[in-house]
Amino acid sequence: MNLSARSRGTALGVLSAAALMTILDGSIVTVAMPSIQRDLGFSAAGLSWTVNAYLIAFGGLLLLAGRLGDLIGRKTMFLAGNAVFTGASVLAGAATTPGLLIAARFLQGVGSAMASAVVLGILVTLFTEPGERAKAIGVFSFTGAAGASIGQVLGGVLTDALSWHWIFLINVPIGLATIALAVVALPRDAGTGLRGGADVAGALLVTSGLMLGIYTVVKAEDAGWLSGRTLGLGAVSLALLAGFFVRQAKAATPLMPLRLLRSRNASGSYVAQMLALSAMFSFQIIVALYMQKVLGYDALETGLAMLPAAVAIGTISLFVSARLSRRFGERAVLLAGLVLLMGAMGWLTRIPQDAGYAADLLPVMVLISGGGLVLPALTGLGMSGARPDDAGLVSGLFNTVQQIGMALGVAVLSTLAASRTEHLRADGRSEAAALTGGYHLAFTVSAGLLVAAFLVGVLVLRSPKPAADAPAPIESVPTNA
C-alpha cells in the first residue's frame, strides 16, 4: 500500500541519517589519523589502510549489494548493512592493534556498501511524483554536504577532547537508532527472489574486478602509475570487468541488465558524475591539506574554515535545486552548477602561499555552492531509468561510479601535486612555495575535469522541457507496512 506523506518523510529522515553516518565516518577518520598512528604504532604506509580497506570493500561491493537488495528486499539489505556497520564500529573503537583496526574498517566498508547501495532505490520508489522526488533528492544531497563538514569538525573535537576511539564509537548510538526507526518507517518489499537474477559468475567477476581496480588506484601513488605492478593489476582488473560485461550480455538472469546503460541520460550522467566528483572530492582533500601544510591551520580550524562550503552546498541543494529542476530541467541545473564549480577551481589555481581567509578562500567556499546544484541533478538523471524491480541495482551502480570517481580523483590529483612539489623543491623553492605550486597543478586539472563534465552535459544529456522530460512515475513497491 502507498505510504502517507508523513510516513514517507519519516522514511526519508531514516535514509538520510544512515547516509549521514556513512559520510561522516569517511571524513572523520582523516582528521584522527595522526593520533591513530601514534597510539597503535602504524607505519606511514600501513596507516593508509585505515582508509584503503574501507574504500576497497565499499566500492567493490556496491553493485552486488544493490542487485541483492532487489532480489531479497531492499529493506532487508538496508537493515543488515546498518547492523554490520554498527557492529564493525564497535570493533574499530575497541581495536588495540593495526591489524584489528584494518579488519574492522574492511567490515565497515562491507556494511556501508550493503546499506548505501539500496538507499536511492528505496528513495525513488517512495517518491514517485517528480516534484516530490526532486525535493527528496535535495534533502539527501544536503545530508552528504553536511556529513562531510561535520565529520571534519567532529573528528577534531572528539580526538582532542576524548580519544580517536570515539570517532568510531559515536556510530553505535546513531546506527542503533537508525535500525530501530527503519524497522517501523521503511516499507517492506519482498524482492523478486534469488532466482530472479542470482548470477553467481557475474557477481564474482564484477566484485573481484572492482575491488582489484580500487586497490590498484589507491596503491598507484606508492608504486607509480607506470610501474609494472600498477599496469599489470590494472590490466587484470579491466579484463575481469570486460568478462563481466560479456557475461551480462549472455546470462539468462544477468546481475546487471545492459539495458540500464542504453539510456542516454543515465549513462551520460554516470560519466559526468565520475568527472565532477573526481574534482569535488579532491577539492575537499587538497584544500584541507593546503590549509594545514601551507597556512598552518590545525584540524579543528580546517574543519571550521570548510564549514561555509558545506553550508552553501547544503542550502542550495535543500532549498533551491528542486525548484530550479522543476522549472528549467535537471540538465540546465547541472550545467549551471558546473560553471560555478569551474569558477571555484579557476580561483584556486592562483591562490597565494600566504592567502588570507576572507579575501582568498571565502569566495571559493561561496562558488563551491555549485555542488548543491550538481549533485541533486546528477542523482535525478542517474536514477531516471530505474524500475521497481531494479531500483536497488541502479542505486548501487550510481554509487559505484561515485566511489570510483572519488578514488581516482584523489589518487591521480594527489600524485600530480606531489610530483610537482618535488620538482619545485629541486629547483630551490621554499617548502610553502613548492606545496602551493603542487596544489595549483591539482586545481588546474580539477578545472579541466569539470570542463569535460560540462561538455558531456552539453553533448550527451538531454532535457528539452522539464514537464515532458520528467521521470516516469515508478510504481510503489508492494508493502506490508
Automatic annotation (TrEMBL):
<feature type="transmembrane region" description="Helical">
    <location>
        <begin position="198"/>
        <end position="218"/>
    </location>
</feature>
<dbReference type="InterPro" id="IPR011701">
    <property type="entry name" value="MFS"/>
</dbReference>
<feature type="transmembrane region" description="Helical">
    <location>
        <begin position="139"/>
        <end position="158"/>
    </location>
</feature>
<feature type="transmembrane region" description="Helical">
    <location>
        <begin position="42"/>
        <end position="65"/>
    </location>
</feature>
<feature type="transmembrane region" description="Helical">
    <location>
        <begin position="393"/>
        <end position="418"/>
    </location>
</feature>
<feature type="transmembrane region" description="Helical">
    <location>
        <begin position="270"/>
        <end position="291"/>
    </location>
</feature>
<feature type="transmembrane region" description="Helical">
    <location>
        <begin position="230"/>
        <end position="249"/>
    </location>
</feature>
<protein>
    <submittedName>
        <fullName>MFS transporter</fullName>
    </submittedName>
</protein>
<feature type="transmembrane region" description="Helical">
    <location>
        <begin position="303"/>
        <end position="320"/>
    </location>
</feature>
<dbReference type="Pfam" id="PF07690">
    <property type="entry name" value="MFS_1"/>
</dbReference>
<feature type="transmembrane region" description="Helical">
    <location>
        <begin position="106"/>
        <end position="127"/>
    </location>
</feature>
<feature type="transmembrane region" description="Helical">
    <location>
        <begin position="332"/>
        <end position="349"/>
    </location>
</feature>
<keyword id="KW-0813">Transport</keyword>
<keyword id="KW-0472">Membrane</keyword>
<feature type="transmembrane region" description="Helical">
    <location>
        <begin position="77"/>
        <end position="100"/>
    </location>
</feature>
<feature type="transmembrane region" description="Helical">
    <location>
        <begin position="438"/>
        <end position="461"/>
    </location>
</feature>
<feature type="transmembrane region" description="Helical">
    <location>
        <begin position="361"/>
        <end position="381"/>
    </location>
</feature>
<dbReference type="InterPro" id="IPR036259">
    <property type="entry name" value="MFS_trans_sf"/>
</dbReference>
<keyword id="KW-1003">Cell membrane</keyword>
<dbReference type="InterPro" id="IPR020846">
    <property type="entry name" value="MFS_dom"/>
</dbReference>
<keyword id="KW-0812">Transmembrane</keyword>
<keyword id="KW-1133">Transmembrane helix</keyword>
<dbReference type="GO" id="GO:0022857">
    <property type="term" value="F:transmembrane transporter activity"/>
</dbReference>
<dbReference type="GO" id="GO:0005886">
    <property type="term" value="C:plasma membrane"/>
</dbReference>
<feature type="transmembrane region" description="Helical">
    <location>
        <begin position="164"/>
        <end position="186"/>
    </location>
</feature>
<feature type="domain" description="Major facilitator superfamily (MFS) profile">
    <location>
        <begin position="11"/>
        <end position="465"/>
    </location>
</feature>
